[in-house]
Amino acid sequence: MLKLSPTLKLVTCTLALTAGLAQAQSYPNRPVKIVVPFAAGGPADNYARFMAQRLGDELKQTFVIDNKPGAGSIIGTDLVAKSAADGYTLLMMSNTHTVNESLIPTKPFALMRDFVGIAPINYSALLLVAHPSVPVKTVGELVALAKSKPGKINYASSGNGTPYHMAGELFKFMAGIDMTHVPYKGSSGARTDIVGGQVDVMFDAETTMATLSRDGKVRALASTGLTRSNNLPDLATVHESGVPRFEASIWLGLMAPKGTPADVVNKLNAEVRKIVNNPEVKAAWAKQGAVPMSMSVPEFDQYLNADIAKWANIVKVSGAKPD
To answer: Which pLDDT value is given to residue 5?
Structure first.
């Protein structure tokens, strides 16, 4: 076996480091695609477009959005998993992905095996809303109605494994009730039908449902944080309303195919953190009910693993199944 002298080893390492730095400095030198594995109009799509604009401004390159919804995020996510690990195809992900690790174990990828985390973006509480025709005004009344009609009350979600689906399953388990899940292929269809009265109740992001509630198109029953929303201070939480310790949220982040150069990942992490920590961004998001998340790459990795473990336990105890 050929042995390198100490001097040659040093030269080799220096060249490798220099190449990595040069790659990071030149990245991106062509358009970057952010795949959103959800339908247009939901929080993941909206914030992906926001981040694409800001990243493009900061890095002087075009970031384009490619919506690939379907199969509870599986279709678009698998597309990214099979893409080149060069930093030019990124994944806009949510806690749908950490849920799916245990809810859909037969999917063609594994999150922590086939991807590397870049950075989280933000999180927001959900609202539990009902169509005005449903004769309930509080969580307690909904629980009583559901107990009187097991399986007759239905709840919409944007698809299997989404935070809205799992919030419903967690609520059923913790409240001791039975409701029927009605999965849609995206948030827009679910929202259209809750407004139209085709479904009874729904958990959805405050960032998108608060306006419909204020306009009287749906009735907000509660928020899902452990503390009340700053934007809706008069609205009780599910936790306050007879289901102690109930909490559910949606959070968003960026990932890339495993093998993406560390220098590129670190560069994107730094840019994302700069954006989410911008005071103007924080203020704008606060009005929408969204809270910025800022973590290093190792911190985000720990967060992802912890969230996977959390949802694995919830899937187990609730008996949640993909419909």
So the answer is: 60
Name every residue whose Cβ is closer than 8 Å to that of residue 287 and which is 6 or more positions away in sequence.
Answer: 231
Give the whole-angstrom CA distance, residue 101 versus residue 43: 21
Q: What is the dihedral of CA 162, 166, 167, 173, to 10 degrees?
A: 170
Give the span between the Cα atoms of 292 and 108, in whole angstroms: 31
pLDDT of residue 306: 96
Q: How far apart are CA 213 and CA 126, in angstroms?
A: 12
Q: Over the stretch 34-65, which tens digit does the pLDDT of each residue have?
A: 999 998 988 999 999 999 999 999 999 999 99
What's the CA dihedral at 238, 239, 242, 246 to 10 degrees? Answer: 90
Q: Where are the beta strands (DSSP E) in 164-322?
A: 180-183, 201-205, 219-223, 249-257, 290-292
pLDDT score at 61? 98
pLDDT for 57: 97
pTM for the full model?
A: 0.85
**130 CB-side CA count, 13 A:** 17
- Alpha helices, H only, 197-296: 206-214, 262-276, 279-288
Conformation bin of residue 176: beta by default, left when phi > 0, alpha when psi is -120 to 50? left
pLDDT of residue 186: 81
Is 240 strand, coil or helix?
Answer: helix
C-alpha to C-alpha distance for 97 and 193, rounded to whole angstroms: 25
**pLDDT of 4:** 52
Structure tokens at 33: 């695609």
The β-bridge relationship of strands 201-205 and 249-257 is unpaired
Residue segments in the chain with a per-residue pLDDT below the cut of 70: 1-24
| 157 contacts 194 by C-beta, under 8 angstroms | no
User: In whole angstroms, how far apart are CA 305 and each of 92, 243, 261, 268?
Assistant: 17, 27, 21, 20
